[in-house]
Amino acid sequence: MSLADYKGVLVYIEQRNKEIQKVSIELLGKGKEIADKLGEKLSAVIIGYDVKNLAQELIYYGAERVIVVDDKILENFITEPYTKALTAVINDEKPEVVLVGATSIGRDLSPRVSARVHTGLTADCTSLDIDEETKQLLMTRPAFGGNIMATIICPDHRPQISTVRPGVMLKPHKDTSRTGEIIDFDAGLLPTDVNIEILEIVKEDKKKVNIEDAKLLISAGRGIGSKENMVHLYELAEELKGEVSGSRAVIDNGWLDKERQVGQTGRTVRPDLYFACGISGAIQHVAGMEESELIIAINKNPDAAIFEVADIGIVGDVSKVIPLLTEEIKKLKF
Ligand code: FAD
Question: Coiled-coil ranges per the record (predicted)?
């Protein structure tokens, strides 16, 4: 079988409790762009139990074909049957490109599937494009601790598989006039494919903060000085109805929970407004926030790298600037 026999773009749609995950919709947007550049079709594959009714929504977001693998065995995510199902779809469909969200599920599934179909995988891509001449997928991701951006190709095997973190690609426009094909797929699953038994599912009861969804982020760096000083940021966040996030230094110091970390090993965010407070602007941090609409940086060092990506820079002591700013905003409200 030759490489030219592989056609089209396939996006793995991750659903949890029958809820389509945001990253999958974002990947439909990117997938459509890639499919258009290749002059091919965009397909989506959804795997689960009683999930067929979600297929139409995927068409509204750009999928021209939706392949549904629906089986009681697939009610909860279990690595082996999901791997078998996705591998079977890929072997049957022979897509040229496969995109998967770099979530905990996507990170579990995609390396196993790529090994089973004997191809490569580029994880945690921050940009994807098509080489105009060779039509290869150009998969770009930070490498060597974020010091360089590496563009990786997969010239000798198909499909070209890539994972992308939530929040990196833009969510496409929903168009309810779109139509498409919904295809039932029998992956030939057997009860023996389930090699573990789920006895109980315990949900984390802690309120989950999703900084990726916040329109406004007040982000703390080591320059905040102490956990006690974080209170200034919470006050500003409350005034502006935003969330508090931070650099890895702040998370490592135990001033914030890990789920609020922005950057290469944290979350990728693109809020309307990002306040960088006492953050130096290390490449690993900037990689997770540079796409923000407006960046305001406060740092006492006028040469701090964060000012290179900031739209507005304030040179000053955060512990003085932030309370003053909060006061001024309060005044504006009355
Ligand atoms: P610092 O670099 O210490 O900067 C503190 C800044 O505060 C300085 O610029 C200083 O001038 C300023 N300052 C000090 N006092 C004040 C004051 N009173 N008022 C105003 N400004 C003040 N980092 C991340 O953030 N996210 C990641 O996901 C991440 N992933 C990483 C992955 C790898 C593989 C590696 C190697 C590193 C990673 N890092 C990450 C760490 C990153 O390299 C930096 O060390 C980190 O971002 C620094 O955090 P910071 O800017 O808060 O602290």
Answer: none
Nearest to 212 by CA among 13, 23, 33: 23
For ligand 1, the distance from its centroid to the CA atom of residue 140, given in whole angstroms, is 24
Instruction: Say if residues 280 and 304 touch (Cβ distance below 8 Å).
Output: yes
CA–CA gap between residue 103 and residue 83 (Å, rounded): 15
**Nearest to 12, CA basis, from 50, 48, 56, 36:** 48
Mean pLDDT throughout 44-59? 98
Tokens of 226: 């102490």
Q: Tokens for 269?
A: 């965010």
For residue 208, pLDDT over 80 is answered with no
Shortest-distance atom of ligand 1 to CA 265: 28
Determine the pLDDT at residue 334: 60
Q: DSSP labels for 166-204?
A: TTSSPPPPP-TT---EEEE------GGG--S--------
Strands 9-13 and 97-101: parallel
Q: What is the sign, positive or negative, of the torsion defined by CA atoms of 115, 120, 123, 126? A: negative
Q: For residue 235, give every residue at least 6 positions away whose Cβ sits within 8 Å of its Cβ, in sequence order, or none.
A: 322, 323, 326
Atom of ligand 1 nearest to the CA of 263: 28
Q: In this structure, what DSSP letter does residue 159 have?
A: S
Q: Work out the percent of the chain whose per-residue pLDDT is above 70.
A: 98
pLDDT of residue 142: 83
Could you give the count of Cα atoms lying within 13 Å of 234 in the half-sphere of its Cβ?
7
CA 296 – CA 284 distance, rounded (Å): 18
Task: Give the per-residue pLDDT at 202.
Answer: 87
Residue 256 CB contacts under 8 Å (≥ 6 apart), including other chains: 220, 230, 244, 245, 246, 250
Q: Which residue has the tokens 């973190």?
A: 165
